[in-house]
Amino acid sequence: MQDNDDVRGLQLSGYSTKEACDILYSDIADEIRRYQIRCRKSLSDWLTGTLHHNNRRSIIHWPSCLVLFLNAVFLLVAFGCAQSEKRSLWLPAIALVLLVTLVFNISITVIDVKLLNEEIVRQALSILTKLQDTAKCCNWSSENYLSLNTPASASITVQWTYRDGELVNLPTNLLVRGDIIVLRPGQPVPVNCKEIRENLHSPREVLQFNEGDNFDIGFSDRPESVSKPTAREPLQPTPFMSLDTPFLNNIRVSLENSTIRPVSAYDNEYFEVNSVWLERRITPLIMVLSLLVNILRWTLLKDDVSHWTEMLLTQQVLVTLPLLPLVVPVLWKAVNVIGVAQIIAQFEQSKLIPDEDSHLDQFSTDTSLESDSDATVRVTWKQILEHSKKVVLGNPYFLPRTSNLAHTLGSMTSLCCTDKKGVLSWPNPSAEKVLFLTSTPQMENVSIQSLYGDGEDEDEMKNQATAGNKGDSQDHYVEVLDLTHELKNPFGIQFDDPSWRKHLLNLKPLGLNILLNTCNLATSHHYRQFFDHVNAVSRKIDGTVAVVTRRCLCELSRRIGFSEQATDIFKLDQQSALYRNPPPTDQRKVYLRKTSNMKNRIPMPHMMSVIANEIHSGVQQLFCQGTGDIVLDMSSDFWDGHKVCQLSNHDRKKILDFYHRYSMSSYCSAFAYRPLTNRLIHGSKDAYIELPESHDEDNMVRTGFSETDQQEKDCQYLGQRYHSAESLKSCISEISVDDEVNNYQQSQANMVFLGMITMQYQAKPDIVKLIDKLETACIRFVHFSDENELRSRVFSEKMGLEAGWNCHISLKSDERNLNTSKRSQMSSTTSCLSVSQRISKVASHVSGDVDYPRDSEVHHNVPSTDQKKVKAVGNFSKRYLGISGRSASAPSAINMSGSQVRFESTTDAILSAHAKNVDNNEDDFTMKDTDSCIERRQSSVSTSSKQKVSIDAVHVQIIDRLTPKMTSEQERLPDNEPDATEAQETSCLLQRTQQFEEEFQSLEEIHSESHQTSNTEESTSAAFDISNRAKLPKGIENIRPHLENVDNVPLLVNLFTDCTPGTITEMLKIMQENGEVVCCMGSSASLRNTPVFMQADISIAMEPLYPQLCMKEAVCRDMWTEGKPSPMELSSMLNSLGCSLSCQRDNNISLVKLIAQARSYIELMRNAFLLILSCNFSLILLQLLASIFQLPPVLSGQHLMWLLYLVVPALGITALGNNVDSHVMSVPSGKNINNVSKKVILEFMMYFMLRFVPSIIICLSCFGLNLQELCLLSTKDSNQCNNFLGNRNLTGSWNGIYADYHQGFNHIQNFLLVQIVAYFVCNCTCFVNRRQHLWKQSLLENRLWCSIVPGLLILQVVYSVLDSLAHSTDRKTFSLSDFPLASWVIAFVWPLFLLPLNELVKFFEIRSTVRYQKRVRLEFGTKLGMNSPF
User: Comparing 354 with 62, which gets the higher pLDDT?
Assistant: First the structure.
């Protein structure tokens, strides 16, 4: 390949694909094996951990197990000690069932917890299997990898590596120890490595670097400044050998953090209900109460009750059985498995649905959820059962136990995204604005054909242009055209102005420059090498950053009217590049005063030019593109659409204002052109030209930074500097051919400025729609941006997020301690030079030369000291994020240090005190002078900065008042006569200035702004007030104290800036500690996302859209479609190890539908278990009331088991049969906190009593009437029958009921059993849909209810008949005809009242739920902190 020549001529081949995959497989397998050995547990350890009473992931705990085991023992004891009664024969069978249930529940719980702890390991082993298959059959070539020219993106981590003898762009996580990597100048080192020496006998030490270092070889310190244009040898990529396998760190993090994810909200709910309330509170209370009642009965009414074993043992067992974990744990797991399987089936089914725009819409939101059919993807029960089987058997593909899809998606409160490019935005920036200068008046009636050179109006246009050339009084003005990105085309753009074609004559030179320079693939290698060189240089210069200025603009050129064949008449001849170092600190005293008033990192001024030969005429044309400052410096004229006009200082100022403003949040590229009359012969094609960095006052005028345009000296210089188009030939003829560098530098001077284009990353339309849907569902979308506040806010607004005063927080920590320690080490004696430098830095804040937008506020910051961490090996250093400095170009990098919050009261107090102190020590400096200075300061900035005086203003004015005095005193004496008075006065001045600086530095610690990020391409800053004016914390370490002591606003913001993987992970922990259920969405091609994925409740890995250097060059020539994974696909599988869902670019997945499905299912599941709990409580209350009213057992043991094991679970399952609620996405979900509070319990008990207690009373009334009738039939004398105790004249258990009237009593119990089931069915009918009344939603839509309820009623009748037959005797004592009429009437009439009663209760419940939802929605939308400025 072409790039092989860059690596110093070494013959390198590297590993083959098979060898590398084998090494990667071996390293990962060894790491997994070590983890398994370290975490190996015995069976006793598993049992102890699983059954622990505080284990929230377990569905059963030792207290319940103990009570269940004791109940089985009590039943066996009761059977052994009981009298020979037929009813006691069921006791050992019930005890056996309870013991089997206990063993089964413990077994599935231990197995489930074991599968949970080993799920990540099994997921890693499954990926290893795919890796092994890849090693056997895949033989990748260079065409299967991303192009070497792929632009850098934070969403993709790749590294130049030799594989199979070719240099390829290998995903970083596929690197292995021993790989030969090629480090490009200025790039971060991805892995520990050492240099491969070309000359083994060289005395130079072998370079060796650690992961995270910067490869900026070539400069030991700041590059030497030059006084004239100088040729620089390009820094070359260098081969290194990898010493480690970088993915091992990621898999180590994944394994160690596999169980740290928070317990889901519904598992917490289950734990609170079953363990905290039932096991620890209600069960002991019921046992004590029942035991006390039965002891009293057996003591006081010993002749009227049964044997002591039944009273003290059996009755306790029957009362507590509904509270014990019998079927509920198994049912809970089964229902969860089905819910997860439904989500998985829907997710897999969505991949099979064709979508025309699937490559644009990874998470489509095409559903408005207006109907049930729109709210979900239809899947069959066969698919659900297949996935359920996989989940039960421990298939780890979707991590169903680590991150329960149904729980996490159903309770999600925040959707966080860590990557922007290719995930939230299109992978390539698109043109937003086009600037050019014109002097042609607006011609509204010019036809389109005339602009293209056709039609009868062509002569008219030429005449107007000629007339324009003759008119010297015509003003030049700046024209800016806005462009809009097309929704479905990654590169498509459209002009907003429908009459944009009238500017075609201005745009056509710009379009030709784009085709020959920017989008010329033949120049991509040269520019990439040049950018690497500039990037390495910028890393050695504080406050600068290399910004890519070349991205695809083919679509803009096509819109202008150029076809792909437009460049056929040109032939690329030569390429050249030049750059300029910003002036050092000691040379910027005047320059900094005239630049922006913020600490920033500015783009490294650089420019690339191509020389193209016109094939027919042989004329050379020079087309250049670069940063706005250097291109404008090299231009003397501009093209106005008709002629070449001279650039005035006013024109320059307007262009630079535009560049300053938009380079803060966009990517600005300037374009220029000139014809070459003399052919240039470039002997050193591989050399770059470095321009002098120093600027005199005249050069400052050239760059447009002067405060006035009326200085005669400046105008004289401009007159000497500018040349017209006719003078280009004479100018070039004067160039010395012998001086090659000067020849090229001069050839690129006096160019014709064509225009400037701003580019910006545009939010994907599906993301914008998704955010709108999430807002409706009260799910907060949170963007963790690694960029600074301004860039992040601009993009957030494009996504539709709020980005105002109280909507973003910087997670970058202040480096106060580092600055304080450095200041403490400063010498007590400060030189005059250092003071002057300090003065110049502070004085630079008063610049009012740049016009700022009206809606912005000028923000003033204070420079901070550079922070560097020196490495022991080599000439490399890890650059701290808090780098300061300014340079000669626009303020378009990162905010360095300043305040998130304006503490005006503290500031005013300190400043007033200091002003008073200065007034006492300096007679010439009065408070009146200070006020006048402050007024001048406020008037020099834009109108938006009319606010309270900042620290900078007072500091600047004090220094400005002190400095002139020193200067004036110096001017009074001759230069050669030193004076003691001057020395004394200077010493006094320095002492007062140093005292002020100490106070000012203490204020700097309080007022700190956001810091820069490590993303060089995206670095920017703002000359506006972009800081958050609310009292919000800054730095991750201040989030928790703020939440504890101030308010919860940090949990309500949508944007966090200056983020790193470490701060994102910590912020996710904070959110989870405060009850947020976090879903993290990030790039599957980024190696840095692993810890973030593992921390979130659920993670979704998305394959990003890959950036392209140009739309004419494919991302990857061959994506490997032979059924085996491509390199990027294999990389995505490895990076997605801790993710529950992983999406490829062509998947048609609707996240909204998945959330709707999960929310609806969870709501149904909650209803089901709430119904089961209510029915169980009804059975408990029924037995307790029967004991209190001295009634015999209302339910036998087999009846109770029938209800608990079959009837109640079946009725609960019917609640799961509803379709997805079309309004579920408008219902907010609660946080993952203790939702089962006393208030909730009391509310549940109130609704339970209203729904179920009346039915219990009806059942007991009918039971009493039936017993009374049985007694009357047996005695024929009503006086002998007690209303509660029956015929007390009889002997035996329960006054003969178990003996003489056994059959009749069994009929009465079965009658009660049928009553209970019927009433449960009525309650179930209203429980099926708790959000809608029966008349609003038909029960026939619930297929489970329609099939289970009729079958259950029939089955209940059959069971009661069979049970009656089993207890029948030859002696007929009581039959159905003997039941009193009142019992029949009450039993059959009560359901007619029960249904309306349930609907009435539902009405109040719905109203209460609506109030709660309104409160939650209000809390969701409230972002006002306690220190709102409004």
Answer: 62
- The DSSP letter of residue 363 is B
* Distance separating the N- and C-terminal Cα atoms of the chain: 62
Show the CA angle centred on residue 406, arms to residues 1337 and 1059, nearest 5°.
Answer: 125
> What are 1345-1361's pLDDT values in tens digits?
999 999 999 999 999 99
The string of pLDDT tens digits covering residues 491-508 is 899 999 999 999 999 999
pLDDT class for 71, splitting at 50, 70, 90?
very high
Q: What separation in angstroms does the CA of 922 have from each of 925, 961, 967, 985, 989?
A: 5, 10, 16, 12, 10
Pairing of strands 1078-1083, 414-417: parallel
3-state secondary structure 190-251: CCCEEECCCCCCCCCCCCEECCCCECCCCCCCCCCCCCCCEEECCCCCEEEEECCCCHHHHH
Average pLDDT over residues 70-74: 94
Closest CA to 410 of 1253, 1065, 1098, 964: 1098
48's tokens: 């102890």
Task: Using CB atoms within 10 Å of the CB of residue 1151, give its burial: 0 to 12 exposed, 13 to 18 middle, 19+ buried.
Answer: buried
Among the listed residues 1106, 1096, 1158, 1103, the one whose alpha carbon sits nearest the alpha carbon of residue 1136: 1103
CB burial of residue 717 (10 Å; 0-12, 13-18, 19+): middle
Q: Tell me: pLDDT of 829 over 60.
A: no
Report the distance separating Cα 1170 and Cα 1173, nearest Å. Answer: 5
Neighbours of 700 (CB within 10 A): 18
Which residues have C-beta within 8 Å of that of residue 1427, sequence separation ≥ 6? Answer: 901, 1030, 1031
In this structure, of 747-751, 793-797, 893-897, 1397-1401, the range with the lowest mean pLDDT score is 893-897
Q: How far is residue 1097's CA from residue 406's CA, in Å, rounded to a whole number?
A: 12
Q: Measured between alpha carbons, how far is 927 from 1172 in angstroms, rounded to an integer?
A: 79
CA-based torsion, 839, 845, 847, 848: positive or negative: negative
Query: Of all helices (H) and strands (E), which one includes residue 285?
Result: helix 283-300
CA–CA separation, 1251 vs 567, rounded Å? 82
Q: What is the mean pLDDT of the chain?
A: 76
Q: At 524, which helix (H) or strand (E)? A: helix 524-539
Query: What residues contact residue 1033 under an 8 Å CB cut-off, 6+ apart?
Result: 809, 900, 1039, 1041, 1042, 1050
Contact 325, 64 (CB under 8 A): yes
The tens digit of pLDDT for each residue in 663-702 reads 888 899 999 999 887 776 654 456 888 888 754 434 433 4
Whole-angstrom distance, CA of residue 775 vs CA of residue 790? 23
What does each C-alpha distance from 904 to 804, 909, 917, 951, 1333 come to in angstroms? 20, 8, 20, 10, 57
The answer to whether 1054 and 799 are in contact (CB under 8 A) is no
Residue type, 1021: S
Structure tokens, 1136: 């997605």
Q: What is the pLDDT of residues 1101-1151, one digit of tens each?
A: 999 999 988 888 777 755 555 567 889 999 999 999 999 999 888 788 889
1098 neighbors 405 (Cβ within 8 angstroms): yes
Q: How confident is the model at residue 512 (pLDDT cuts 50, 70, 90)?
A: very high
Q: Which of 979, 1125, 1015, 598 is nearest to 786 (CA)?
A: 1015
User: Are residues 1041 and 1197 in contact, defined by beta-carbon separation less than 8 angstroms?
Assistant: no
Structure tokens at 348: 């897999």
Task: For 392-422, write each residue's pLDDT tens digit.
Answer: 999 999 999 999 999 999 999 999 999 999 9
- Strands 230-232 vs 1078-1083: parallel, antiparallel or unpaired: unpaired
Least confident window among 603-617, 943-957, 972-986: 943-957
Q: Which residues pair with 687 in a beta bridge?
A: none
